Amino acid sequence: MKTIAFYSYKGGTGKSITAANLAVCLSRLNINCVLMDMDFEGPSSHNKFSPKGTASLGTGGFMKYVSSHIKMCDDIKFLSNLTINNVSYLLSTKLPINEGLKAKSEFGAIHLISAGDIYQEDYFPTILSPRWQELFGIYNPEIKQRISETDYIEYKNFFQETINQISMLSPKPDYLIVDLRPGVSTISNTIILEWVDTLVSMFSCNEESINYLTGFFNNIATKRDRSFDVIPVLCRVPVGFEYKGNPKLKIMMDQIKRRWDDIITLHSDRDMELNENIQLGFNDSPQNTRLSHDYVNLFSRILITHSRNQIEKTIGLSQNLFEQDRIFKIERERGHLINPSDNSRNVSFKVETFQLLLKGFEDGLSDIAYDTTERKNSIIKKNIFENCLFKAGVTCGEKFGNYLKITFAKSNSIHYNSDEAKIKEWCIFDSDVGFGKFELDPSSVCINKGTFQEGNIILRESFLTPADDISKTFQDHRCCNFMKGYIQGIMNILLRGKIQVEHRVFSAEEYKNYYSIDAEIRSESCLFTIKRSL
């Protein structure tokens, strides 16, 4: 049995929910595990699986088990002969799956060992008692001096006996996941030194957290008599945030002998931070979000035996990057675009208002360009409207392009030295703004003497798609010239020189060949070719 512990300097990093997601991930891979909550002052693991997990409170949890082996004080009842099996709770793991996957009949077991029944009157007297502090303070020099040799041996044997009992639970677990107390804690130090094989160290990229963790790793290094792996995880990271090159972080990375590429990032997710829901699906189906894929990336690093693609396929997450984080959900019945962060329709109202504005603009121009010949009027109306849309798009694109240019310059990163890298970074930035999902097709890129010459941009989920666009008829959108101008404006700033942007329909056949799936709606059908003029 391998022991994975999650630790952080401060709360609010998503430590407990990440541990819970790992447990669910293992279950979906048909691997048995134990999730153990050792954040005694602020336990929460039992709530992550609510309403099913709340039943674990009735088991007494780890506090009750400790009290049955080591007498805390005269005021606390001593319960003898309890085993780990008596205080663990076997969660129901008939997990929901995403539509389109074959139903699975087998999932791995999740044993939940809560911190204890926190509402019982003896809970806090127990975890604050002197004997409790001695038990979990055997690696603290000051506490160790006060412990008799007999008690020290009893405490050491207790940890060995406990891990042995955990490993013998039925169904037999392959992994023990421990949710540790954040901050300065003798409990965390002791569990790390006694049990841990892999330590997932979660932190925010601020000086206080980095300085503490550097000192923490220095302290641990002087006490451990066995090696364990450390995985640094940068938490709740805004999209586009650049952490490489931070001197304080570099010192910490050197201390744990890690490179920049060894840092795992977990991006911000408003919905998860508000609701603390399990992204990989316990009560609900797995959520195909950027954070879910971040979790999979971390878990593939922890498990080693399972690749990222294997885990994504088993869970039912799309391996296509542009399926990770839908800016809008589509309600087919009404054609509404829904903001997935809070399920509000305010975004759809804004889009609808913008479309009505464009429609009024179009109608107004047609009145100005009125001609008695209906066909001629239609042509004039179309040309004037498309030209205005294109110019409006160029204005918007150049404004955002200048913002990107300043951002790239401030980063001082060699990552942005090439034109291709800048375009890819723009695609990432803009895919989170709300205009749609942009992707540079790598097979279309032409570079001549280090200079970008040509490439295709694929646009999906365009925000200019009319609300009633739920057909599979692939054709041009009414407002595509705005997006053509927008991309033109971006490229004018990023690539410099004379740039030409051409637009055409991305056919259903091309879509299927590129993404290996059928397009659902017409908003998936835009392709823009960028060319550098000679």
Précis, in short:
This protein has 19 helices and 14 strands. With 534 residues, the chain is an alpha/beta fold. Mean pLDDT is 77; it is low at 321-346 and 467-471.
Unreliable segments of 5+ consecutive residues: 321-346, 467-471
Number of strands: 14
Mean of residue pLDDT values: 77
Strand sequence of the main sheet, in spatial order? 3-4-2-5-1-6-7-8
- CATH superfamily name of the largest domain? P-loop containing nucleotide triphosphate hydrolases
Here the CATH topology of the largest domain equals Rossmann fold
What share of residues is helical? 40-55%
β-strand amount: 15-25%
| Name of the CATH architecture of the largest domain | 3-Layer(aba) Sandwich
- What is the count of DSSP helices, taking H or I runs of 4+ residues? 19
* Domain count: 2
3D structure, described in words:
This protein is an alpha/beta fold and 534 residues long. The chain has 2 domains: 2-319, Rossmann fold; 330-532, Trafficking protein particle complex subunit 3 (Muramoyl-pentapeptide Carboxypeptidase, domain 2, 2-Layer Sandwich). The protein is 42% helix and 16% strand. It contains 19 helices and 14 strands. It has helices spanning 15-28, 45-48, 61-67, 84-87, 123-127, 130-135, 141-146, 149-167, 186-194, 207-223, 247-255, 270-275, 290-303, 308-315, 346-368, 374-411, 419-431, 480-495, 508-515; strands spanning 2-8, 33-38, 89-90, 110-113, 175-180, 198-203, 229-237, 264-267, 329-331, 336-338, 437-448, 451-460, 499-505, 526-532. The termini are far apart. The relative contact order is 0.09. The model is unreliable at 321-346 and 467-471 (pLDDT under 50).
